[in-house]
């Protein structure tokens, strides 16, 4: 039973890490989208 609890808690920790990572990844994607959007806007203005 103790081993099972230990496994369960480590799985929970992994889930939390994945959740945190996915949030950070979403933030990165949004920042990249903003950057590419800004670059597109600058190109449009030049034409």
UniProtKB/TrEMBL annotation:
Keywords: Coiled coil. Residues 11-45 form a coiled coil. This is 1733_t:CDS:1. It comes from Racocetra fulgida.
């Amino acid at each position: 039973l103790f081993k099972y609890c230990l496994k369960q808690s480590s799985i929970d920790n992994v889930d939390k890490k994945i959740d945190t990572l996915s949030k950070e990844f979403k933030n990165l994607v949004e920042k990249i989208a903003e950057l590419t959007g800004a670059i597109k806007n600058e190109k449009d203005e030049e034409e």
